[in-house]
Amino acid sequence: MSFKEAVQNPYSPWMDDAAPETDVVISSRARLARSLADFPFPHHLSPDKAERVIQRVALAVRETEFSARFGDTEMVRLAELTPVERGMLVEKHLISPDFVMRNHASYQYKGLALTADERLSIMVNEEDHLRIQCLYPGLQVTAAARDADEADTLLEETLDFAFSDRIGYLTACPTNVGTGLRASVMLHLPALVLLGRVKDILTAASRLGLTVRGLFGEGTESVGHLFQMSNQVTLGMSENDIAKNLDSITRQIIEQERAAREQLREQMPVVLRDRVSRAFGILRHAYVLSTDEAMRLLSDVRLGVGMGLIKGVAPRLLSELMVKTRSTYLAKMSGRQLSPPERGELRARVVRQALGNISADDGE
After folding, report:
1. Which of 115, 189, 209, 309 has the fewest CB atoms lying closer than 10 Å?
2. Secondary structure in 3-state letters for the chain
3. Is the residue at 218 inside a domain?
């Protein structure tokens, strides 16, 4: 997929259904923070030095060994993208919200390298000089961390990263010092939310060194019963240990969520079936939908699909609709900024067109 396609197409490979534990884990991500040894951190970079960072990274991703491993990697500057295109990359989770929200005047000196399959992206001059991200569908934390580490190793053959023999990689934020790895999973936990247990479980996870955030990471709230869980500690643990710890705790939460779903099935089968069927019906026939309502209803339908109560609807389609119902995609479709009522109408139309012709089996 070319860069132009990436900012036009709401689909991304992390939405694939054929991955482990996709009934609960939507995606897995590994992100490495790296900074160049001979440059100040990005918030102290002059325009000239910021330009030199971009040029060095652009050369590094074109190196033969890197290209042989990850394929063609396009590099663009944020200034070359429209606000809608930048928003699409955020909503597809290919870049962070902070990357486009901070210091708009510096867009000329911020770059993004993206592989054709969208599995690997490198944000240049974000909080650190490089944020190397690998994104996979389902529960594949160790695979994402392995590929991010391999990309890091290949880049380090031509780039000199700031490193201390005593504490590890040096980063702009002290919380990333050490490995610089933030491994995360996006979890769909509707049953635990409905039974009032999610807070206790996520609090327990925080005691084990993990942090829980909303759909788009730090500073965002959970919507559609979706949560991002990642490691808090990057110092004193290896990349492999961080990934294995997150994988282990995630598997425990998966079992808790599945047990909660079975409890709903046993104790309130009619209420459960009514909830997921009603959500599917509203999405297929509504003429106005708000963002929050669409995400909540899509969550209920995903729950029904995961439990076999609704058949004939691919989870991948529901993941695509998570992007298609956001304001950025709607603006891209219409070619202009929309008023809230206009967005509500177009959002409902997009969902109706996606689901209206599906003859879903209600599982009875």
Report:
1. 209
2. CCHHHHCCCCCCHHHCCCCCCCCCEEEEEEEEEECECCCCCHHHCCHHHHHHHHHHHHHHHCCHHHHHHHCCEEEEEHHHCCHHHHHHHHHCCCCCHHHHHCCHHHHHHCEEEEECCCCEEEEECCCCCEEEEEEEECCCHHHHHHHHHHHHHHHCCCCCECEECCCEECCCCHHHCECCEEEEEEEECHHHHHCCCHHHHHHHHHHCCEEEEECCECCCCCCCCEEEEEECCCCCCCHHHHHHHHHHHHHHHHHHHHHHHHHHHHHCHHHHHHHHHHHHHHHHHCCCCCHHHHHHHHHHHHHHHHCCCCECCCHHHHHHHHHHCCHHHHHHHHCCCCCHHHHHHHHHHHHHHHHCCCCCECCC
3. no
CA dist., res. 233 & res. 255, Å (int): 24
Q: Which two tokens stand for residue 161?
A: 């990263």
Domain count, the chain: 2
Tell me whether residue 161 is in a domain: yes
Interatomic CA distance for residues 185 and 138, integer angstroms:
8
Gap between the Cα atoms of 243 and 15, Å rounded: 21
Residue 155 maps to which CATH number?
3.30.590.10
Alpha carbon distance 168, 34 (integer Å) = 11
Domain presence at residue 195: no
Q: Report yes or no on 230 lying in a domain.
A: no
Q: Cα dihedral angle (135, 139, 140, 144), rounded to 10 degrees? A: 30
Give pLDDT, residue 243. Answer: 94
Distance CA 345, CA 122 (A): 36
Residue 141 has a pLDDT of 97
| Dihedral angle computed from the Cα positions of residues 332, 353, 316 and 184, in that order, rounded to the nearest 10 degrees | 40
Kindly tell me if the per-residue pLDDT of 287 is higher than 90. Answer: yes
Enter the pTM of the model: 0.91
* Domain end position, chosen among 153, 185, 217: 185
Q: Would you place residue 359 in the very low, low, confident or very high pLDDT band (cuts 50, 70, 90)? A: low
